[in-house]
Amino acid sequence: MGTGKRTLTMAAIALVCAVTVLGAPGAAHASPSKPTPTPTPAPTPSGSPTPAADKELEEVRGKLEKLYHDAAVATDAYNAAEEDTQKQSGQIVELAREIVKGQAKLADLKDRAGAAARAQYRGGGLPPEARLWLSENPQAYLDGAGRVRQGEHATKGLLAEMTRTQEDLQQYARDASAQWKRLEANRKDKAAAKKKVKKQIAAAEKLESQLEKEEKERLAKLEAAAAAKAQTAWLDSGVLDEINTKASEQGRKAVRFATAQIGKPYEWGAEGPKTYDCSGLTSQAWAAAGNGIPRTSQEQWKQLRHIDVKDMRPGDLVIYFDDASHVGMYVGDGAIVHAPRPGRTVTITGAGTMPILGVVRPDAG
Asked: Cis omega before residue 273 (within 30°)?
């Protein structure tokens, strides 16, 4: 990217930083090309600076980052359990259909086998040798005997099919029982994850509520400064000089969808259309582009194709933190669109404002 274009881009991102403040994980905006200076401590009533107060606010910021990060991890666990629950519910419904079909098939086979047995019984009596000697038309008898053997063979086939159908029904029942056990386990996992999400968010909100208005404003400046510093360091690495790949058609569609959600609130576990969490936004954006991808950021990292940062293009997903607990969509010029965390809205921020784990590409093109 040329120097002029980069300067223009950084100015635009700096403007975003000035009007919107995000918190971790992923809750910060891109910076201008030079690091934003650390805010001057507010004076006390006596006029002396209060460095201790800023230090305490920095500790608060660290605690909030951890609480919201833990909430993001729990949200991913909740989303994974929810996805598995839906999948297993569908499998149970399908197994139930197979059981109903198998029972109908077994009833039909039993009727046919019973009819065949009754027909054989009516044709029984004397041994075959005696019936041949007493027959007035031995050839006709032999022809009839051949048909009887065919009937006996068909009856054996019916009995074998009945046995297979019964075995299938038993296997369907075992599979359904196993799926029910998994379903119940996932429901418990989902409930535990939900409880943890709410606990972490409540703790963060309580911590923030204890701050005075002036302290919240200073905390916001500290968050913005930290984000600006991280983004500047990332850009100064020269990474943008190597990123010049154009988006695919699907990638452009995904970016259009994601950016159209800007301003909508974050809500954990949400997939739109009014609220989103981080992976809910990216998965729905790619679904809108015609390509279904995993629901959670961790599974997106595990299952999608990994791409070097220097090769990423708009539409690719940037995965953050060592545990892949956050994800954003690259939109070009060193920026991502993402759903940051509770209390914030879908926004554009610098791609380097959080620790990057790696980049994945949903489409194969």
From this structure: yes
Q: Please give the DSSP secondary-structure letter assigned to residue 264.
A: P
Catalytic residue among 17, 29, 69, 326: 326
199-225 pLDDT, tens per residue? 888 888 888 888 888 888 888 888 888
Q: Can 278 be counted among the known catalytic residues?
A: yes
Q: What are 256's two structure tokens?
A: 């259009």
From 17, 29, 69, 338, the catalytic residue: 338
pTM for the predicted model, two decimal places: 0.61
Question: Is the backbone of residue 360 left (phi > 0), alpha (psi -120 to 50) or beta?
Answer: beta
Whether residue 320 is predicted with pLDDT greater than 70 in this model: the reply is yes
Q: Tens of pLDDT along 218-254?
A: 888 888 888 999 999 998 888 888 777 888 999 999 9
The answer to whether residue 17 is catalytic is no
Burial tier of 61 (Cβ tally within 10 Å: 0-12, 13-18, 19+): middle
Check if 306 is active-site.
no
- The burial class, CB within 10 Å (0-12 / 13-18 / 19+), for 305 is exposed
| CA–CA distance, 218 with 208 (Å, rounded to integer) | 12
